[in-house]
Structure formats: C-alpha cells, structure tokens
Amino acid sequence: MLHIVLIEPRIPQNTGNIGRLCVATNAVLHLIHPLGFTLDEKHLKRAGLDYWQHLEKYEWDNITHFWQYHTPDSKHFFLSTKAKTPYYQANFQKECFLYFGREDAGISETILKTYATQTLTIPMSKHARSLNLATSVGIVAYEALRQIGFK
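Structure (tokenized):
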C-alpha cells in the first residue's frame, strides 16, 4: 500500500487534487496538522470532486503523533528540492510512505538531515525552483506504483 504524507499543506486545491490521485491509485492520504485550510473548504472539495468521499484519509496532530504509529524506517521517503538523489533511484517497496512538505517551505531541515539517505528529489532545470505539490506527488507516486506493481 502506498501512503502519501502531506506535512502541513497550505493550499486546499493541491490537497484536493492529491486526494483524488489517492483514490485513483488506492493510496492512503495522511494529513499532518496544522493545515492551511479547513477540510470543509469549497476549494478542497471542488478539486477533489466527488472522489473525496472514497478517500481513505487520516489526520494527525503533528509529525511526532504520526510517527508514534508509523515509525520511520527504510520504507519512508522524503521529497525535497534540496536532495541530490533522484526519486527514480529509490527502491520503493509494497508498503511505502512518501512525504511532501508545505508548499511554501518544504520539509524541515531537521527531518531532511535525520533521514538524508531516504531524501529524494525530482530533477528539473535550473530555471525552476520547484514543481506544484500535486504534480510532484503524482510523479513520485506513479514511479512507486510502477516499481511495486500497481493493480
């Protein structure tokens, strides 16, 4: 099973799109608070369309709370523009966790340093700072599914 972990997302449309992607890929969505919006916001529901009702999602007070139930190990991968290893070099496993940070700040430096060997990037030209969060999740999620065999 694929788990998408959004750490403190800020833009409801991104989260709505990611929720829709999770339904389409049978992935679980984990939302780490604080969120930059409420889950009843119309932009979230509009982006997620009628898929949101089929979404398996969990909310967590903070990353520490999440890690009490899902302790980071070799199946946890952290995506960042600051990483050197491309996402397609990772060895994704049947149950893996893909972490994505806030749209405006990414994942904290502390987490990236702690899990440096599991930190991945999406290569892009020097003319771009980053990709949209929903686009990034889609890119990495489908590579993970390709590796583990999506059915």
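Strands lie at 2-7, 28-32, 57-60, 76-79, 85-86, 96-100, 119-121. The mean pLDDT is 92.
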